[in-house]
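Minutes, project check-in
Item: structure for the 152-residue chain
Input as provided by the requester:
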Amino acid sequence: MRDDIRTSDHIGLETDRAAFVDWPAEIYEELITSMDNGVVGTTLVSETDKLRVWHLVLEPGTRCAFHRHVNPYFWTALSAGSARTYFADGRIVDMEYFKGQTQHYYYDEGEYMLHSLENIGDTALEFTTVEFIDGPNAPLDVPDTVRLDPPA
């Protein structure tokens, strides 16, 4: 089974405000101010010159900030649950995730995806995401505050 998604299936920033008519105003404003947010998880747990490994935990009713993917990556669901994704082209997509589900994404030079994920279920959603930062685009910066701080 192949779980590959090419960027043409999910990229693009819609510039017509009418595409976001069903969005809450604060979510749209966050989208516009998050173009360079490279924080794709809750915690950056490992990083090399080739990849970054992230954990993402979303409690019921919470949403991660809009973030931008610029290089190939994949995620794996560590738990089952329900989520709503807000995409920068104006789409809102509800999905069910199952434990172990894995999806791969690919980006060519100049391509990206900007989105936010909201837990609309009643259990915590957990993912591991691996970004290949040696891809065709320069990786986005991430602040030290999201890096794992091991106990002393």
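Outcome recorded: The radius of gyration is 15 Å.
No further action items on this chain.
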